[in-house]
Specification:
There is one protein chain. The protein is an all-alpha fold. It has one domain. The N and C termini lie close together (10 Å).
Length: 70
């Protein structure tokens, strides 16, 4: 369980980095935006939302592994 938590945590951090790189327009945006927001805003929101979900999953797996011994 700890390894799974670590993997999800690393993927969450990668998602944060991708969101930042998309926000500063280093990485390309891949979601087409509407007239109010550009493609960068939608793609950055996607990466940060994915990162938040992965980090919460990492926290859940790490809490779930507290009762187990290795």
């Amino acid at each position: 369980m700890r390894v799974v938590a670590l993997v999800f945590g690393i993927l969450g951090v990668i998602g944060i980095v991708m969101g930042i790189l998309t926000a500063v327009e280093v990485a390309p945006a891949f979601i087409s935006g509407g007239p109010t927001f550009g493609t960068v805003a939608y793609t950055s929101a996607f990466w940060w939302g994915l990162a938040a979900l992965l980090l919460l999953t990492s926290i859940a797996f790490s809490i779930g592994s507290w009762g187990t011994e290795q």
